[in-house]
Amino acid sequence: MHLVPADRADRRTIDGHRVCDAIAAIGDAGRVRAWADRFALLADPKRLALLLALHRTGPLAVSDLAVATGMNDPAVSQALRLLRAAGVVAGEKEGRVVRYRVVDADVAGLLGHCAADG
Protein backbone atom coordinates (compact mmCIF):
# COMPACT_ATOMS: atom_id res chain seq x y z
CA MET A 1 0.00 0.00 0.00
CA HIS A 2 1.37 3.39 -0.99
CA LEU A 3 1.20 6.23 1.51
CA VAL A 4 2.32 9.02 -0.80
CA PRO A 5 0.00 12.00 -0.28
CA ALA A 6 -2.03 13.07 -3.28
CA ASP A 7 -0.11 16.35 -3.61
CA ARG A 8 3.12 14.35 -4.14
CA ALA A 9 1.71 11.36 -6.05
CA ASP A 10 2.75 12.73 -9.45
CA ARG A 11 6.43 12.91 -8.48
CA ARG A 12 8.80 10.22 -9.69
CA THR A 13 10.36 7.91 -7.09
CA ILE A 14 13.29 5.55 -7.43
CA ASP A 15 12.48 3.24 -4.52
CA GLY A 16 8.76 3.73 -4.07
CA HIS A 17 8.41 1.17 -1.30
CA ARG A 18 11.14 2.92 0.70
CA VAL A 19 9.45 6.26 0.17
CA CYS A 20 6.29 4.79 1.68
CA ASP A 21 8.31 3.39 4.59
CA ALA A 22 9.95 6.80 5.09
CA ILE A 23 6.56 8.54 5.14
CA ALA A 24 5.32 6.02 7.71
CA ALA A 25 8.47 6.52 9.81
CA ILE A 26 7.99 10.30 9.84
CA GLY A 27 4.42 9.87 11.04
CA ASP A 28 2.22 12.64 12.34
CA ALA A 29 3.46 16.21 11.81
CA GLY A 30 2.34 17.16 15.33
CA ARG A 31 4.50 14.45 16.87
CA VAL A 32 7.48 15.57 14.79
CA ARG A 33 6.93 19.15 16.01
CA ALA A 34 6.71 17.96 19.64
CA TRP A 35 10.03 16.12 19.33
CA ALA A 36 11.64 19.11 17.60
CA ASP A 37 10.52 21.28 20.53
CA ARG A 38 12.06 18.81 23.00
CA PHE A 39 15.32 18.79 21.09
CA ALA A 40 15.30 22.61 21.05
CA LEU A 41 15.07 22.58 24.86
CA LEU A 42 18.01 20.18 25.02
CA ALA A 43 20.06 22.16 22.48
CA ASP A 44 21.02 24.83 25.03
CA PRO A 45 24.14 23.67 26.93
CA LYS A 46 23.07 25.31 30.21
CA ARG A 47 19.59 23.76 30.16
CA LEU A 48 21.13 20.42 29.21
CA ALA A 49 23.58 20.69 32.13
CA LEU A 50 20.68 21.38 34.51
CA LEU A 51 18.75 18.41 33.17
CA LEU A 52 21.74 16.08 33.37
CA ALA A 53 22.32 17.12 36.99
CA LEU A 54 18.66 16.57 37.88
CA HIS A 55 18.54 13.27 36.02
CA ARG A 56 21.61 11.92 37.80
CA THR A 57 20.96 13.22 41.32
CA GLY A 58 17.22 13.59 41.63
CA PRO A 59 15.48 16.64 43.09
CA LEU A 60 17.67 19.71 43.64
CA ALA A 61 16.99 23.30 44.68
CA VAL A 62 17.84 26.30 42.49
CA SER A 63 20.82 27.33 44.62
CA ASP A 64 22.28 23.82 44.54
CA LEU A 65 21.81 23.64 40.77
CA ALA A 66 23.53 27.02 40.44
CA VAL A 67 26.58 25.75 42.33
CA ALA A 68 26.64 22.46 40.40
CA THR A 69 26.42 24.12 36.97
CA GLY A 70 28.36 27.33 37.62
CA MET A 71 25.32 29.41 36.71
CA ASN A 72 23.82 32.17 38.84
CA ASP A 73 20.51 31.66 40.65
CA PRO A 74 18.42 33.91 38.34
CA ALA A 75 19.72 32.11 35.23
CA VAL A 76 18.87 28.73 36.78
CA SER A 77 15.41 29.96 37.75
CA GLN A 78 14.76 31.26 34.24
CA ALA A 79 15.86 27.99 32.63
CA LEU A 80 13.75 25.97 35.07
CA ARG A 81 10.74 28.17 34.36
CA LEU A 82 11.07 27.34 30.65
CA LEU A 83 11.58 23.63 31.34
CA ARG A 84 8.63 23.60 33.73
CA ALA A 85 6.37 25.33 31.17
CA ALA A 86 7.33 22.64 28.65
CA GLY A 87 6.45 19.88 31.13
CA VAL A 88 10.01 18.57 31.33
CA VAL A 89 10.60 19.33 35.02
CA ALA A 90 8.38 19.83 38.03
CA GLY A 91 9.03 21.49 41.35
CA GLU A 92 8.15 20.10 44.75
CA LYS A 93 7.84 22.67 47.49
CA GLU A 94 9.09 21.74 50.94
CA GLY A 95 8.69 24.73 53.24
CA ARG A 96 10.43 27.61 51.49
CA VAL A 97 12.58 25.35 49.32
CA VAL A 98 11.50 24.11 45.89
CA ARG A 99 13.33 21.08 44.56
CA TYR A 100 13.10 20.30 40.86
CA ARG A 101 13.12 16.93 39.14
CA VAL A 102 12.79 15.61 35.59
CA VAL A 103 9.24 14.40 34.93
CA ASP A 104 9.21 13.87 31.15
CA ALA A 105 9.94 10.18 30.64
CA ASP A 106 11.04 10.63 27.01
CA VAL A 107 13.53 13.34 27.96
CA ALA A 108 14.73 11.23 30.89
CA GLY A 109 15.44 8.42 28.44
CA LEU A 110 17.48 10.75 26.23
CA LEU A 111 19.36 12.05 29.27
CA GLY A 112 20.17 8.47 30.24
CA HIS A 113 21.83 7.98 26.87
CA CYS A 114 23.76 11.27 27.23
CA ALA A 115 24.94 10.38 30.72
CA ALA A 116 25.98 6.87 29.67
CA ASP A 117 28.27 8.29 26.98
CA GLY A 118 30.04 10.58 29.45
UniProtKB/TrEMBL annotation:
Keyword list, A-Z: DNA-binding, Transcription, Transcription regulation
Top-rank taxon: Bacteria
Domain HTH arsR-type: 27-118
PROSITE patterns per UniProt: HTH_ARSR_2
Matching Pfam families: HTH_5 (PF01022)
InterPro entries assigned to the protein according to its UniProt record, in alphabetical order: ArsR-like_HTH, HTH_ArsR_DNA-bd_dom, Metal_resp_trans_reg, WH-like_DNA-bd_sf, WH_DNA-bd_sf
MF (Gene Ontology): DNA binding; DNA-binding transcription factor activity
PANTHER family recorded: ARSENICAL RESISTANCE OPERON REPRESSOR ARSR-RELATED (PTHR43132), HTH-TYPE TRANSCRIPTIONAL REPRESSOR CZRA (PTHR43132:SF6)
NCBIfam families the record matches: HTH_metalloreg
Protein name: Metalloregulator ArsR/SmtB family transcription factor
Lineage: Bacteria, Bacillati, Actinomycetota, Actinomycetes, Kitasatosporales
